[in-house]
Specification:
The complex is a heterodimer. By secondary structure, chain A is α/β, with parallel strands linked by helices. Chain A is built from 19 helices and 13 strands. Classes of the chains: A alpha/beta, B alpha/beta.
Chain lengths: 425, 146
Amino acid sequence: MKLTKEQQDIYDGKQGETYAKVMQTLVRYGELYGAEEMIPVTGEYGHLVTSFGLKVIHPVYKIMDELIGAGITSKQKFTMDPRPLDKNVPSGPIKDLVFNKFMYSMQDEYEEQLKKIGLISEDGFSCACYFDEQGNKPKKGDILSWAESSAVVYANSVLGARCNRNSGILELFGSILGYVPRFGLLTDEGRKAKWKIILKTSKLPTAQVLGSAIGMKVMEDVPYVYGLSEYLGNELTPEVCAYLKNFGAATASNGAVGLYHIDGLTPEAVELKESLIEEDAQTYVIDDAELKRVTDSYPVIWKNPDAKPKMCFIGCPHLSKAEITEWIHKIYDALKKNGKNKPVIPTVLTSAPGVLKTIKGSKEEKMAKEIGLTISYICPLMYCDNPLVHSVPIITNSNKLRTYTSCRFYEDDMILSMITGGMAL
Amino acid sequence: MKEFKGRVVVPGTCTATALVSHGGFNTLASYQTSFLTGDKKATCSDQNNPDLYKKPLAGVALCLPQTIGSTTGGMILYTASDYGRQPACMLFSKPIDSIGAAGVLLSDIWTDASMPTIDSLGDEFLDYVKSGMTINIKDGGVVEVE
């Protein structure tokens, strides 16, 4: 890789050993993928995936201490994935003890380290950092150093920014240096589609299922999707963006998609059209039967597959303002219709701190309180992804949560019916 | 005995017993329980990987197509290495994925652990190698399987 003088000096240790190791890590990383240069990060803020102060990731705190000890701060401020704990979320004395005193006992210390390096603010914790209410929304063409697969795929696909699917720690290193190696999704060539997806369904598919099907088929390749804009239209409205958020999160977690193009809708597809598709691209046709095959393939890993659900999470990735408002209304109305006062399964709606601030004191917040809904900024994945919770039968409408935990996936209508007593459990 | 040649990602030599994953190696799912329990053998906790589930990961020659799963994966592999619970070596049949690459580079640069890593060994490598065989990594990306 050809480095500038400034970059070479850092690499050679002229600004200290720790700074050199940061540069060496990213240079070697880039060289593995044929990067020939380190290019400036042009996005205003970074975004980090490791938001949890898990006691056992002590080596991460060691790196943070080394960076702080060397006087290193990030060139750009950064947001974080959601916090793993929220006292408002139902748990119990044993879980509380284990979560607070053992598992996540380093949360406060870790957040202090993050502040010293460049954490944007106390409220900067959401996987959907790109919401207007969270303030980390890159512009088209911005070069980013982000991790969190759902945020990366959204930034690339819906916003037209450029970011590789980075790992935790490496995304911080890019923000520290202000440079990232140029390869993959940062290049025009790397953004071309290797798959044509032809949608032939009878109605708009559930975003989380369509994304799952595509992710499992194309893995890390870029898909170009035909037929979706016939349902979604050609404008990136808040509702369409919410659909694409959920769709993208499923492509990224059920596969490893970092960028997708939707014909006639997403910015690069609108601008460059089919020139984005590689000549030898493969084709995947999706119809109703294919989506059923995909959902039928999901394993149920509850100890007792017939167990009555004990909890429900809605909001992975975090719900947008429009989504959380709609869910509160839908649950409220369905409960009234079914003659119930509260959900029959304790239900948690999760969203970004910035969004939660905007609904504070609103009619919807009062409705949620009245029917006993829990509204939280927590990361459902962090809550569920531990042995204490693995044995609890939890349902969700998130395909990401299904993939990484023992949670069981149902589509929105079924979830609504289950939690509001519209069907026998 | 058969010899394969790949690309050196992290240099080094070693001899270890093969543990083969034919599906993608989910780093977070594989290590999470052993991290929480302090299991020094790093027994694999990924229920979705029948090749590895309940088998120790520490000290084996981990043969895999690529890593999959959460973007915390690189951090997890680095953490395993810092605790000395990493595989003896990692042998990728495909070009290494970005999350796996982050993990092996963080391990190499930020810990004292040794985990030679070779990628691009080809599909034939993963077809040939079986768990329990002896792996010998030589210089220049040469991998002997006995």
